[in-house]
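Notebook entry, structure prediction.
Reason for the run: the old model in the group folder had no record of what sequence produced it. Starting over properly, with the input documented here first.
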Amino acid sequence: MSALKKIVIVGRPNVGKSTLFNRLAGKRRALTHDLPGMTRDRLSEVVELDDGRRYELTDTGGLEYGDTPMSAFAGEIREQAERALRDADFIVFVVDGAAGVLSEDRDIAQQLRPEAAKTVLVVNKTDRKDAEESVPEFWELGLERVLAMSAEHGDGVDDLIDAIGEIVPAEAAAEEEEDEHAPVRVAIIGRPNVGKSSLLNKLTHEERAVVSPISGTTRDAIDSELVRNGRRYTIIDTAGIRRKGKTTDEAEKLAVISARRAIERCEIALVLFDAIEGATGQDATVAGYAEDAGKAAMLLVNKWDAGEHGPDDYKKFEERLRFRLKFLSYAPLLFIAAKTGRNVEKIFPKIDQIIAGYRQRSRTSDLNAILERAVTAHNPPAVRGKPRRFYYVTQLKAGPPTFALFSNVDEPLHFSYKRYLENQFRDALGLVGCPVHFVIRARKGMKRESR
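New structure, fully documented this time:
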């Protein structure tokens, strides 16, 4: 298979690049902007078009060329972005339609002018009704291809998808065998001192595998490889993640960044909790990073052997934990003791079960049968008085399972109905520990097939 086409998103800070990246990739990014340096590296994702063709989408940090940049890593961000642009087959230059043309936009446009033939200017934060007024101002940037859109609401994004589709060749369709035998990437995450290193040692020692350090892509996350029953695993051990307000030391901030990048690289996050201290708000924050990144998850309550526990204690602890982590209601839970090895042997079979669903691809006919049953049982709520209809559903990608819902309304699903559909698809497809994502694709004028 030929190399994937590289699509690169650039722009100054706060114009909606990450929102557009999320919209195209069909999921939320893990690495948000709430910590210094969080976006100094490029973030790439392999994205599938509706017909299975794939391309590599790259999000870059906000470019700043002035003498007083907002980010302490402005120089590194520019270097990373310029590196990405050198390799780009197609450039998406994002500006803020509400803010108008700023000097930073002109600086970036000047840099992109030699690449104008492969650049599209996206005027973001613009509704269709406002496009006629907002777009003309941006012609001064000297780029011929201009699209108006609202990445947040999805308005106009299909036009960009069509433009990307024009350069993605047919041979870029996914080869499913590639992922089937790839190592299962597992990250061990949690706040400090919950036993992450003890668990790593027990996992690798119990399998009597040769553990070799790998030069990882993040500074403080350590990768280890092992083989169990013929299957390869990459285990990523991370530094403990503290609350943002507690990370005053610069090195510790970098450790947090490293840990969150490790989450971005994994497929399954093993989220550790301390049985002695119980579930805390900080635990929920750490678990939320995995959920935000679209990773499968398993909840592990460690140090369960540190005290006396009766049968009711398991149930009470789980109830409290589930209450805090409602967003990970689908994640299986195990009570373990990493130091002694209690229940650690149950982790790998559960990982195997989870990864099967996380990488699963389903037939379109099966998906549409699930959708029809779900809608028959519970119709979607109307949007501003307009009944929502679904025409069909197809799988965009695996890891996590992401589905395109073709609808007469391009507004996002209501939270409660989205959760309902997630549960319906998860149960019907036998997905364990996996998030399920939906992307709304508007297809106005389509006639719904009779049911």
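Summary: The chain is about 30% helix and 20% strand.
The old model has been moved to the deprecated folder.
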